[in-house]
Design brief:
The chain is an alpha/beta fold. The chain is 28% helix and 26% strand. It has 2 domains: 107 residues, Rossmann fold; 95 residues, no CATH class.
Length: 202
Amino acid sequence: QKDKKYQVASLLTTITEDYERVSLHGVRRIMVEKQARSLDIPIHEVLIPKSCSTEEYGARMKAALEKFKQDGIEAVAFGDIFLEEVRKYREENLAKAGMKGVFPIWGRDSAELVGSFIASGFQSIVTCIDSKVLDKKFLGRKLDKDFIAELPPDIDPSGENGEFHTFVYDGPIFKQGIGFHRGKSVLRESFYFLDLIPEEEY
């Protein structure tokens, strides 16, 4: 939002329809909707089935992108840092819809990036970890300097390789913080997920 060249029209996320949760992150749908309201930005949710094939994912995302294109949206911004194959995949799919990708943090140092994120006052919690590379003790932790300091040396401090995922619940661009309580954790395949229960449901 800082870059005056761009006007943010909408947020875009995928929701696994069988679970009503954000794909890969495991966060309840209601939580990202609260996030969007606090940011005062509309959100568009692309529904996908569990065990979604690459073809099905591509088709559903293409339909969403084409609708945005019809509405005058020309570009989609992503938070990728250094994974070349991921960027290439995104750009190829965007091109099919006549759109382009914007990568505002591409090439930045991961440690510097997460340090800046924390120093800026953003508050986030680790909602998913890959148990193949991280101990369960990291699940449910606040993303702060202590968390980063305790990570094994081969883990990217921004979790760029999918080592962990987070949910941002407060920060300088939020109108108000998002209240929640920590729920149960569950292991699916090699990933631990922490359920965040909305404050009003606890």
